[in-house]
Write a structure and sequence with these properties.
Blueprint: E1 19-23, E2 30-33, E3 39-50, H1 53-58, H2 63-79, H3 97-112, E4 117-129, H4 131-170, H5 177-192
Helix pairs in contact: 2-3, 4-5
Length: 195
């Protein structure tokens, strides 16, 4: 004869199917200061599945809430180690999304193992400057684009002027120093000027 006391027994269903979880997003934006101190709004998507249902049921109160809390913390930590964008070609949030995703996934996996969860991916879903500085940063980006465009124009104009003087020399037209200088000034003014 066997007897089972049903009092105090709790039934917990643990799905081992692949699941997705939004971290941040429009309803719960996460504001973080990037490496340069600029406030940015970030969100991410975590794809995971339970591989140890005993750990997910017994070692943490709620495995989904546990992963959510840890993912928010990891997202804030990793984003704060990179600038939003860089001018010197170093890693930034805008250019290194794949590498940052790998770092997010690895860091979250270290925390999620105790809950019996396998993190399959953790990717940035949204990245933008916080509203309070977005306009200023847009002006800064436009100014940088203008300077870069001007640099291309100047480089091209200098090349054209050099070729013009060399071609005149090759065709037998010798110019004095003052004439070369005047020709260079006129050609550069026409090519670099907006009119």
């Amino acid at each position: 004869m066997h007897y089972v006391n049903p009092i105090g027994i709790e039934k917990r269903l643990i799905s081992v199917k692949r699941q997705n979880m939004d971290i941040g997003g429009p309803t719960n934006p996460i504001k973080v200061a990037d490496l340069e101190g600029n406030p940015v709004i970030v969100s991410g998507v975590v794809s995971y599945r339970v591989i140890n249902s005993k750990a997910a049921a017994l070692d943490v109160e709620n495995h989904r809430d546990y992963v959510m809390t840890q993912a928010q913390t990891i997202l804030k930590q990793v984003v704060s180690r990179y600038p939003y964008e860089s001018t010197d070609g170093s890693a930034s949030l805008k250019t290194e999304s794949y590498e940052i995703g790998i770092e997010l996934c690895r860091s979250l996996q270290e925390k999620a193992t105790v809950a019996g969860v396998l993190i399959e991916s953790f990717d940035l879903a949204d990245l933008s400057y916080a509203p309070e500085i977005a306009q200023v940063m847009l002006v800064r980006q436009q100014a940088k684009a203008m300077v870069d465009a001007r640099q291309v124009i100047v480089d091209g104009a200098c090349g054209i002027v050099t070729q013009a003087i060399e071609r005149l020399h090759d065709e037998g037209h010798e110019l004095e120093a003052g004439e070369k200088s005047k020709l260079m000034i006129n050609l550069l003014t026409v090519m670099v000027g907006e009119q």
